[in-house]
Design a protein that fits this description.
The chain is globular. The protein is 16% helix and 36% strand. The protein is built from five helices and 13 strands. It has one domain (20-251): outer membrane lipoprotein receptor (LolB), chain A (Clam), CATH 2.50.20. Strand 8 and strand 9 form a beta hairpin. The two termini are 22 Å apart. It is α+β, with helices and mostly antiparallel strands.
Length: 281
């Protein structure tokens, strides 16, 4: 998947809740984050592990590779697009019991340099803006926000956010200029499972293996090879928690008002600094 991530696509991202604890200092005056969002809801396949362990020649079934490439090419050609995601993700309690939470996300993209996402979950709400110059993240309800200068393109901005702060918006692997390249970056093996159904849509079911995660993707069987479902299994974590996103409402020619990508910060909101990611030895 993407660089410096777990190894699956950047979306998916992963998927996808925000890792607020990596963005904002964790204290009484800042925004707390749950373990579910940090470990199950925010890290996409590509975010789940650092790159560098990828095999030079991954073993991918030709049919699976062609379908994934067609999906990536479709999104790459779209200059403006919109989609929604119904998300479920696991949280692991100290007792080793798994809890499942739900979320809903809307994602709007205007290439080469605009993103707006709104994320609503059982554990809270978040809004993310990128306008080509600045990235802003607002924690709904608590009215805390962070804002930093950003690179002039989506790709560079997403890479810098991960490198500097250890996070990216959920499902961000789909937002890169070349989603296919991001998705296969850390793949060790992949195969075609068969045909399946996602909310009434006939889809091709593909499965991929990486060092730290396994992931599956369902791609629509039609003229437009749209991604319809993503499942990420964090196989090296206790009880192998999962992240599941069902994608719908795709519009590859969506037009947006310019105001959509301008951050709307409540008058009494408190600004806090993004917390720099610490390198692991």
């Amino acid at each position: 998947m993407c660089k410096d991530r777990i190894g699956l696509p950047k979306f998916i991202l992963v998927g996808m809740a925000f890792v607020i604890c990596n963005l904002l200092p964790y204290s009484g005056s800042t925004i707390p984050a749950s373990a579910a969002e940090e470990e199950s809801g925010s890290k996409s396949p590509s975010e789940a592990k650092p790159s560098g362990n990828k095999l030079k020649s991954p073993i991918i079934d030709p049919k699976a590779n062609v379908l994934l490439r067609e999906m990536g090419s479709l999104l790459k050609a779209a200059k403006n697009f919109y989609f929604t995601a119904e998300i479920m993700f696991d949280d692991l309690l100290p007792s080793d019991q798994k809890l499942q939470f739900a979320a809903y996300e809307e994602i709007s993209v205007e290439k080469p340099n605009r993103i707006f996402t709104e994320y609503l979950s059982d554990l809270g709400a978040k809004r993310f803006w990128y306008d080509g110059k600045t990235v802003t993240l607002l924690q709904g309800g608590s009215n805390y926000y962070s804002s930093v200068k950003a690179a002039p393109t989506i790709d560079k901005t997403l890479d810098e956010l991960m490198k500097e702060y250890g996070f990216s918006p959920p499902l961000s692997d789909f937002l890169y200029d070349d989603p296919y390249a991001v998705l296969v970056e850390n793949v060790e093996a992949g195969f075609y499972v068969g045909l399946g159904d996602v909310n009434g849509a006939r889809c091709h079911h593909l499965a991929f293996v990486e060092k730290y995660i396994d992931w599956q993707i369902w791609i629509e069987d039609g003229k437009q090879k749209l991604p319809r479902k993503l499942v990420i299994t964090y196989k090296t974590m206790p009880r192998s928690p999962q992240y599941i996103a069902v994608l719908s409402d795709w519009n590859l020619k969506k037009t947006f008002p310019e105001s959509l990508f301008r951050a709307e910060i409540p008058a009494k909101a408190v600004r806090v600094e993004f917390l720099k990611a610490t390198s692991k030895k």
